[in-house]
């Protein structure tokens, strides 16, 4: 029971990181792909939306890493060995993204080198979800044993689709959230601009999600049986959330659109975790090879105690900064 609870906590953290941190990466993606076309007001809304809370969202990634190597050390070793290249690039992206964001806004070179820091911020924001998505797709494609450890094939369709889906889903979340913020602050120009981008990104993400399911079923993915037998209802929830979000955007019901978009992206991540259970790296590392029970119990009690402090604190942080009037 304890290993399954730890596995569920791990995927809950990954899901929250996708929904909350993914929107921050998406803001950077829009900064990159529309670099020369963003109006000053659009760029200000983008940076203003993520500025106060973007660092806090990384708590879910940190928790997922700590939980994995504490509860499933063998699985962590296999993942770190097989995924060290994309994870190293993603880590570098997180570091350079944060540095570029701060230097662009507050550094002494902010005015002179603003475009340079914007480019660095956008590139790092793009690279990180691409690497995370490619890693997820490669894990879903299954690993092979080798003398030096597990190896993964990144040249298959599933890692490519996973990379594109991760980046597009982040961009979709960011655009939907920014549309809602524009409506909250009664800025029709911002609403129109971000609404068009949200609709486009949502449609592309839906196509990529369907392509991912097709790639799983057509290939030799070891997680396809779990998806077919257990996870498909969660995938339907994701599809319903995406459809609701698109319709709500079209009908200008932006709070509903934001909530439905979060459900759509979060359900994709949850479905992946359910389909993959009990494996961390199919078919090599699973929850069967876990830390001693006393370690798991202590870890879960510590997680529960931390949640009592962390969740209200984060809720207060979001409420405090998101309720502040924009300059």
Any key phrases for this structure?
globular; 3% strand; mainly alpha; Formate dehydrogenase/DMSO reductase fold; 327 residues; two-stranded antiparallel sheet
Overview of the molecule:
- With 327 residues, the protein is mostly helical.
- The chain has one domain (2-298): Formate dehydrogenase/DMSO reductase domain (Formate dehydrogenase/DMSO reductase fold), CATH 1.20.1630.
- Helices cover 78% and strands 3% of the residues.
- It contains eleven helices and four strands, in the order ααααααββααααββα.
- The protein has helices at 2-33, 40-50, 59-71, 73-82, 84-106, 114-141, 157-184, 188-218, 224-250, 254-276, 293-322; strands at residues 144-146, 149-151, 279-281, 285-286.
- Strands 1-2 form a two-stranded antiparallel ribbon. Strands 3-4 form a two-stranded antiparallel ribbon.
- β3 (279-281) and β4 (285-286) form a beta hairpin.
- The longest helix is centred in the first third of the chain and has 32 residues, at 2-33.
- 48% of the residues are buried.
- The model has no long low-confidence stretch (mean pLDDT 85).
Helix content: over 70%
CATH topology: Formate dehydrogenase/DMSO reductase fold
Secondary-structure-based class equals: mainly alpha
Q: Which series of helices and strands comes N to C?
A: HHHHHHEEHHHHEEH
CA radius of gyration: 20 Å
Average pLDDT number: 85
**Percentage beta strand:** under 5%
Low-confidence stretches: none
In terms of quaternary structure, the protein is: single chain
Terminal-residue CA separation? 51 Å
Reading off the top of the CATH hierarchy, the class is best stated as Mainly Alpha
Strand order of the largest sheet: 1-2
Number of helices: 11
The number of distinct structural domains comes to 1
Main beta sheet, described?
2 strands, antiparallel
Using the alpha-carbon principal axes, give the shape: globular
CATH superfamily: Formate dehydrogenase/DMSO reductase domain
Find the count of extended strands (DSSP E, 2+ residues). 4
Level-2 CATH architecture: Up-down Bundle
């Amino acid at each position: 029971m304890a290993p399954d609870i730890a596995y569920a906590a791990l995927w809950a953290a990954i899901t929250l990181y996708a929904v909350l941190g993914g929107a921050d990466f998406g803001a950077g993606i829009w900064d990159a792909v529309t670099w020369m076309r963003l109006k000053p007001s659009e760029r200000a809304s983008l940076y203003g939306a993520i500025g106060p809370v973007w660092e806090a969202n990384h708590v879910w990634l940190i928790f997922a890493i700590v939980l994995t190597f504490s509860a499933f050390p063998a699985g962590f070793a296999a993942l770190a060995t097989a995924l060290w290249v994309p994870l190293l690039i993603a880590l570098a992206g997180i570091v350079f993204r944060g540095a570029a964001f701060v230097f662009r806004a507050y550094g002494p070179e902010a005015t002179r080198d603003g475009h340079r820091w914007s480019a660095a911020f956008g590139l790092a924001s793009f690279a990180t979800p691409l690497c995370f998505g490619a890693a997820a797709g490669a894990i879903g494609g299954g690993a092979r044993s080798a003398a030096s450890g597990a190896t993964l094939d990144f040249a298959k369709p599933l890692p490519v689709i996973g990379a594109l889906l991760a980046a597009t889903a982040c961009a979709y979340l960011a655009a939907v959230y920014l549309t809602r913020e524009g409506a909250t602050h009664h800025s029709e120009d911002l609403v129109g601009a971000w609404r068009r981008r949200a609709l486009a990104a949502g449609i592309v993400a839906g196509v990529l999600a369907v392509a991912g399911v097709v790639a799983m079923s057509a290939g030799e993915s070891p997680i396809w049986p779990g998806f077919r037998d257990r996870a498909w209802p969660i995938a339907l929830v994701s599809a319903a959330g995406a459809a609701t979000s698109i319709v709500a955007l079209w009908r200008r019901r932006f709070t509903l659109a934001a909530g439905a978009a979060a459900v759509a992206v979060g359900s994709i991540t949850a479905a992946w975790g359910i389909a993959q259970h009990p494996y961390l790296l199919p078919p090599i590392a699973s929850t069967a090879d876990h830390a001693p029970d006393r370690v798991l119990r202590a870890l879960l009690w510590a997680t529960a105690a931390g949640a009592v402090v962390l969740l209200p604190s984060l809720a207060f942080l979001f409420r405090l900064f998101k309720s502040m009037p924009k300059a």
